[in-house]
């Protein structure tokens, strides 16, 4: 078969994978355990605190442009929110937040901890702060809620941002997910084990079929009856007269030939 085109029998391949199913599952479980342990020991949990705000303007100006909006005018509200986020992420605002809250971060580092999102079809938006400390996340979020409206009113004439909900101390971590990472580890382990079995199967096919047991012989050739098995005396723990005399004579013949 070495000099011929390799013809893969899909059924035989599936059977080869199925015969190793217990090993595949065991490897998947081991990999899932490693992922869980790595997540538990190596990844620091993070917590999210969120403050909600609402854009409540009848009219406002930004630079030379003036708008008149209502709650139904979502496009104008989105324009406002984007402007507010820009002001929030400005260096001056971030430094005010740091000075007021007393957190030990630079403006750049604090900016990376803050994310925003607009509530669909509304003029409301959320500001989320992610930190390794739940109390710190709540402190920063509520400091933003106190400082941002004042900063916005200084820059955008006629703006009116109201607090819908202040942040509370998060009771549960937001990341990492132990369940998700464990499932990913299980899938990765199972996938790698299956790939290994397939590669080994293809190598055996390339180097002619290797039959490891009578069960494999029966599965590959179901129409052929196995009449007898010849034991491999070299693998037997009880190496009797046959093994010692036969292989002893064989070694003597080899020495004589030399």
Write a brief structural summary.
The protein has 258 residues and is of the alpha+beta class. The chain is built from 9 helices and 6 strands; from the N terminus they run ααβββαααββαβααα.
Molecular structure report:
This protein has 258 residues and is α+β, with helices and mostly antiparallel strands. It folds into two domains: 1-43 and 176-210, no CATH class; 47-165, EIF_2_alpha (Alpha-Beta Plaits), CATH 3.30.70. The chain is 54% helix and 14% strand. It has nine helices and six strands, in the order ααβββαααββαβααα. The protein has helices spanning 10-19, 21-42, 74-88, 91-101, 107-113, 134-155, 178-206, 214-220, 241-257, and strands at residues 47-55, 59-62, 65-68, 114-118, 124-131, 161-165. The strands form two sheets. A four-stranded antiparallel β-sheet has the order 4-5-1-6. A two-stranded antiparallel ribbon has the order 2-3. A hairpin with a 5-residue loop joins strand 4 and strand 5. Helix 4 (91-101) packs across helix 6. The longest helix has 29 residues, at 178-206. It is elongated and about 95 Å long. The two termini are 34 Å apart. 19% of the residues are buried. The model is unreliable at 1-6 and 241-247 (pLDDT under 50).
